[in-house]
Structures
1.
Amino acid sequence: MDQAVNKATTRIAILGAGMSGLGAAAKLKEAGYSVIDIFEKSGGVGGTWRDNTYPGCGCDVPSHLYSYSFELNPDWDYKWSLQPQILKYFEDFADKYDVRRHCRFNTEITECRWDDAANSWTLTDRAGKTYTADVLISGLGQLNIPHTPNFPGLDTFKGGAFHSARWDHSVGLKGKTVAVIGNGPSAVQFVPEIQKVVGKMLSFQRSPAWCRPRGQRAYDAKAKKYFAGADWRINWYRWRIRAFADFGFGAFLQKSPLGLADSMKKMCQKHLEDQVQDPVLREKLTPDFEPGCKRILISDDYYPALAKPNVDVLRQGIKAVTPDGVIGEDGQEYKCDAIIWATGFQSTEFLTPMQVYGRNGLSLNQAWKDGAEAFKGMAVSGFPNLFLLYGPNTNLGHNSIILMVEHQIHYMIQCIDKIAEKGVAAIDVTPSAMTAYNVRVQSEIAKTVWASDCHSWYKNEAGKVTNNWYGKTTDYKKETRTPDWTDFEVVKG
Ligand code: NAP
């Protein structure tokens, strides 16, 4: 067997030049693969950090951990960095690892089809052009398609309206009455910024969420010099953040050990009490579900912004849009000049709207009719040589997703090495391995707070938790250390 030759000729297609796609390309190159095409529908790298440009946009995971373990950055300006610096990190990464030359920008893949005879994938872009690959990797993640509910009258609104993830900077908000629909992690970041400029803000909150302090801090030149002095300093800091967050994972279990869930709830309650003096507003902002069921908000300035006199918090959703405003669930019209949809993403639909067809023309939509699932979050039975990064049941509510993606890349490259072996060409996870894995995942998830009673983007409409991993990041690391080849079958073309 001459694996070097096969590695050099294995054609790898990666969808998306965001965090996962860039990391995968860099590590594949390091592993000796060179025929790599990254299909990116936009004109640049960075994915979600390129798309989201709303005021105050940043990460709610500390930056020294929200970065690759193999590309440490001593120069973060803040503990919780802001979008421009995070985007720059990924842009610099693409340059340093020479990934850009693999990118086909402004190329949106609309269909991927497995060719049973040729043992390869055929990709079709929006213009109808086709490409062939031996291995298909999705770096599309879970949060790339914004969700704007299709309310009656949506198109009749006369003012400016846009989704938070596609911020329309041409819409002037100064002095205007602005309705913000939704109160998730995106809203919590931009509301304090725009509250300072709008005339009035109407914050529609269908269900208020738990919020804990952020403790933002800037890193001065001395701190940056300290981190730059030796890698172990960043690695030690990363280890502490990761270990502390994994320890805190117990707060997300229904039978929480060591009173961790209670402590989390008390911390959030105290934060609300400290920051909101008005008992009526406090009551409005008190959630009616257990902390963690939805992602816990992290902010020092969200509650103070909501308490300002130019903000009305409306504990209700909306039911329609009119030319002049929105109709609340109370049936009243609330006039406004602009509407900002902070209504999240089509998180449970994963690769949609792209169409994916596997062996014997099996459609992924059909395979996932009862909710998306994958083996180790990465492989789907019936879809050979397909790997999903940040796929089903790999999201976290407590730690850095980049850790999970690095574990996936490590596992996936071992699979691709297998594919590149002489006489293999294609592998497919067996139906029994896939079923056994997902039965286990769902039974573990039933023990977590994500399965409790609230509406969240972690669940599909039927209530199945399709997005989250059930444990600590170290559990997933163990899960993905080495493939067990009995979980896979070799597919003959
Ligand atoms: P989200 O958490 O899904 O929040 C959407 C909000 O819109 C919720 O308050 C939801 O209300 C509301 N909503 C949805 N449909 C509605 C409807 N039909 N009528 C009224 N309200 C409606 O979305 P997000 O804030 O964009 O955050 C999504 C995820 O993106 C986060 O969990 C996080 O993983 C990621 N994110 C990360 C960062 C970061 O710092 N790393 C920053 C921003 C976002 P209900 O709660 O009642 O459903």
Note: The two ends are 19 Å apart (CA to CA).
2.
Amino acid sequence: MRSVIPAALDLSRVPQHVACVMDGNGRWAQAQGMARTEGHAAGEEALFDTIEGAQEVGIKWLTVFAFSTENWKRPPEEVKFLMGFNESLLVRRSHELHEMGVRIRFAGRRNWRVPKRVLRRMDDAVELTQHNTDMTLTIAFNYGGRAEIIDAIKTMAADGIEMERIDEGTLERYLYDPTMPDVDLLIRTSGEHRLSNFLLWQVAYSELLFTETLWPDFRRNDLYHAILEYQARDRRFGGLNR
Ligand code: IPE
Ligand code: IPE
Ligand code: MG
């Protein structure tokens, strides 16, 4: 879908890292008398339009919440659909992302519940796109912010890191992707005003943007409006701006 970058959007001040909680797929489907899973499928177009739009304005890091450590609580058929859908999305569209210059990464628990064949597809997509530099797309899959912090602490302990030496930088080096910058702008669709365990460490000073739009209806234009709102905010990081 073509759309014009708003003239008021300052391309020299776009957020470096945008994160999206892609929420509202089930409600979108149910509102049209369809099965919830149809909503997940419809979310694919929203995702790709958002990726293209993010690239167009020069966003370097885009992180999307695709499946949480808590989403295993859903009915087995929906979980099964989501595993298969994410796998098929990687098979069908990794090459396209590669051609776009997108580097694909994953954040989440690898060694817990995710089927082996899905892990293989994830590894293939990461390997294929590893040298791309235009934008990093991190797919948070089987991801929980608390799990990430616990996993980091466990690995730190296993490495014998001395307690006195631990500071924020130490813990950051043990997160799923130590090179991932803090989130500048966090967008959540579907009118829910919560984090639902997304990127807890990395959102400490993010600007939060909530929209009523359901994820399958989200397009790059909605991203641009979120960035405009972001650019109107005064980020102080605990200090004072003059
Ligand atoms: C977000 O949409 C996608 C996932 C959690 C996988 P939902 O499935 O949560 O849709 P709603 O919030 O129930 O409408
Ligand atoms: C968060 O949405 C997870 C994803 C978008 C993948 P949920 O729909 O699972 O969150 P809650 O249950 O409304 O908090
Ligand atoms: Mg939801």
Note: Residues 76-99 form the longest helix (24 residues).
3.
Amino acid sequence: MAEETIFSKIIRKEIPADVVYQDDLVTAFRDVQPQAPTHILIVPNKEIPTVDDVTAEDEPAMGRMLRVAAELAREEGLAEDGYRLIINCGDHGGQEVYHIHMHLLGGRRLGRMLGGS
Ligand code: 5GP
């Protein structure tokens, strides 16, 4: 089994977070260090470390993440101007928390896709 991260504790409501959505497959909460006016993380409730660990049985949760991201983007008023979804994978991808998460970023022009360092 995957090693537990802080996100599992957030999913189980054992530590505080600004949870904006939760269902049987996914949980969404605001990033503690927002990089844009809206910065929400959408995570599967199941502990899956990285995109590289996704299997066929995870397809429903992966699909739900995308649909919930679109729904939250609409709720946050981002749909018209646009927004960005990011999933970092592994060291070179800049992943810090090893529980798959999709970043929903918006509310300002986000500029070029890759930042540097
Ligand atoms: P990564 O670099 O792994 O793609 O992104 C991890 C994200 O999780 C970062 O944007 C970071 O600010 C966020 N994060 C890390 N720990 C916590 C936490 O305890 N609570 C919340 N809400 N976000 C966190």
Note: The mean pLDDT is 96.
4.
Amino acid sequence: MTTRRKFIHSTVAGSAAFAFSRYAGLTAAASASDSRIEILPNESLGTISPNIYGHFTEHLGGVIYDGIWVGPKSKVPNYDGLRRDLVDHMKTIKAPVIRYPGGCFADSYDWRDGVGPADKRPRRTNFWLGADSEKSPANHRFEPNEFGTNEFVRFCKLIGAEPYLAANVRSLPAQEFARWVEYCNSPEGSTTLADLRAQSGSPQPYNVQYWGVGNESWGCGGNFTAEEYAIEFRRYSAWLPGYGRPLSLVASGPNDDVRSWTRGFLEEIVRKGRGELRNIFGLALHHYAWNLSRGKTGDWDKGKGDAVRFDPVDWYELLREGSSIEAMVEGHWQVMGEFDPEHHVKLVVDEWGPWYRPGSEATPGDILEQMPTLRDAVFSAMTLDIFNRHPEKVAMANCAQLINCLNSLYLAHEDRFVVTTVGRAFELYTPHQGGTSLRTIFSAPHADYSRDEKPATFWGLNGSASLKGKDLHLTVVNPHVSQSREAEIVIRGASAAATAAVLTHSDIHAHNTFDHRDVVIPQPAPVTIRDAAIHHVFPPASVTALSIRLA
Ligand code: AHR
């Protein structure tokens, strides 16, 4: 049986419509509410870290070359080699933090290969060689190192995002981690590496705060046991140079619901005393929703579904797989509390999203690229709502991956660029960044359907609310493939005015392509105020954002 760990190992070592009519009842929306949303402005759940809206970029397939980096001499509009449309859109969604250079690639990467004069940088075998196809361009297989730390930090600075670098724990010594920190953060003129940085045009330090200590150390990042990795973590994180700015170190954490990793890691860390926890900002959790087999297999290849051809059961199945991340966050948090009762260490969900079988690539040859549909917009919105509802636990999250990959916000090839359904969902959620998350109670009829001749249900409406001053932002997902929901929205102790924007389509498979870029885009939607409550019809298969101004 193929597992995710085996998949990555074998790809590296060896080779490696359904028409559905909906909207019945949308225009003729129920005259009476069938659902209720109650927002409790006095019940704060905590501040939503903007970093929950973070991104992930890896030297993998078309993410860096073609996606982000087109080169300064390209005919594609660019800012010194960085794709202009991408930078511009990321600014509009206030992208707060970007993780780089992987992923599995990170634990094979020597950061020194990617600095210094671009024409002197070495070419290396990319970690993902073996997963490529005959259509993959050479720079996806053999890393030219045209894009490295300087280019990445420049990308972040143009956008206004914080860089989050993942250090190599599997194949470089701890000293190289310290030297990478030195290269990025040592003051102007202070060290040989600061001088090297200055020669690339940046005398001022990059001041990189977020550092991952390896990636998926249970698998491609070293194949460690949790205890072995904890020992490595202590060694790699001990006496790193700070240059007056405390570093926020992220430890490689569990895959999915594997609590034995969380327990084993923390048990070993605190063996030397609870003070060791002060060295850890976050524990990384990865969760990909990939198994659409309806319980028939756990095989990594056979269990996957199709990105664009799916039936309503696949729709619910994917959302169910994705919604399980809420129980994972709660479960790991509980284990973390056993060793860290003050919860100094937070969760960093630095890889999340659906993962389908190959076949829907917008650019053939881009490995792990898939076409996001309306289903993925709903999935992503639901996931962001989950993070919003746990602001005290989740300090950062990074959607995997930014462009030309799994749950991408963007697709690009040469001079073509499109904001996907996922990118459109992120637009609706931007106002949550930095808001106070409010307890919100959703009551709505469940979505009932038949799963392999057995009755199944999924929740009816769900979402999150946040407050900044008098501005309340409410996001709501209606997962039902064919029924709208009319909800009465009550804000306890307040009166309000509201506007709404909705992301939906009459076809659950709808997606934005290079040729049809605006198939699924946010549209304004009517809101009515009746009997001191806001009333809103949530269309089937939709993501809605309500901007509410409290009186
Ligand atoms: O995002 C693709 C891969 O998935 C990453 O490189 C790795 O960390 C995970 O297994």
Note: Confidence is low (pLDDT under 50) at residues 11-30.
